[in-house]
Amino acid sequence: MRIGTGYDLHKLVEDRALILGGVKIPYEKGLLGHSDADVLIHAIIDSLLGAMGEKDIGTHFPDTDESFKNISSALLLQKTMQIMQNNGYKIVNVDSNIICQKPKLMPYIGKMKEKLAPLLNIDESALSIKAKTNEGVDAIGLGEAIAAQCVCLIEKV
Ligand code: ZN
């Protein structure tokens, strides 16, 4: 078994859709990035790559590559799962946090799990997504950014 950790943060700006865990969330702002800036999926991808001893998300999916511009991060996750398969690994479980002051994410956590568990080839019971605020302090607490953390456990097939 191998363990991996991932962290990501994106700025919240106007005129962008807010996509978290592959789910579009109604809000006045969205995350800025080269892809759809899905901070949760990026943290999950980095944890999986880390667990495999692969390089990071920026190496595999560079933001200088035009083919990744505005790409759905769910597609990047699918590509990552292909790398896992090629390396002979499968996921045991994933535990993640989204740190977000606004909007309230609780109503969307179920949808995120529905979307991500099949992509990760795991049961929803093996996928944990927790949402917390930053108690109104620092850039995240002031609503200027959203961050995500992830830990995963993988094993040889
Ligand atoms: Zn990112």
Q: What distance lies between the first and last C-alpha atoms, to the nearest angstrom?
A: 10 Å
Strand order of the largest sheet: 4-1-7-5-6
Classification by helices and strands:
alpha+beta
Q: Could you tell me the mean pLDDT?
A: 97
Shape: globular
Rg over CA atoms = 15 Å
Number of helices: 5
Order of helix and strand elements from N to C terminus: EEEEHHHEHEHE
Q: Catalogue the ligands.
A: zinc ion
| Main sheet record | 5 strands, mixed
Helix content: 25-40%
Number of strand segments: 7
Low-confidence runs of at least 5 consecutive residues: none
- Proportion of residues in β-strands: 25-35%
Gist?
With 157 residues, this protein is of the alpha+beta class.
Describe it.
By secondary structure, the chain is α+β, with helices and mostly antiparallel strands. A five-stranded mixed sheet has the order 4-1-7-5-6. Strands 2-3 form a two-stranded antiparallel sheet. The chain is built from five helices and seven strands. 38% of the residues are buried. Helix 1 packs parallel to helix 3 (73-87). It is globular. The protein has helices at residues 39-52, 57-60, 73-87, 106-120, 138-141; strands at 2-13, 18-20, 23-25, 30-31, 89-99, 127-132, 145-156. Bound molecules: zinc ion. Zinc ion is lined by residues 8, 10, 33, 37, 39, 42.
